[in-house]
Write a structure and sequence with these properties.
This protein is mostly helical. Helix content is 57%, strand content 0%. The protein folds into 3 domains: 48 residues, no CATH class; 29 residues; 31 residues. It is extended and about 55 Å long.
Amino acid sequence: AVVPGDDLDEAHHRILLTNCFAQGAALMQGRGSDDPARSYPGDRPSATILIDELSPASFGALIAFHEHRTFANAVLLGINPFDQFGVELGKQIAGQIEAGGTVFDPSTEALMRASGIA
């Protein structure tokens, strides 16, 4: 969310919004090129949501919107959005962390030490 505040001047806020709107336009328009690395097909869906005030109600509405969109797209695609193999793997690893005794990658170990659960 881009929210103007005391530490964010108007010019910087305008630059952020300009780039946000430009990305949406680029996804829609695309651009052809002889160089495949510089060719962008366009017709890519995107959504830009503007909220007058960031409040608990507007934040909750934004979360509900994303949840609804995820479920609606899953229905249209005929998939179960709640059956995620990555989530299952995460649950298995969480069980290993809870049980203790397993050595994990350095990143996970550092997070566990920093949070006090290791």
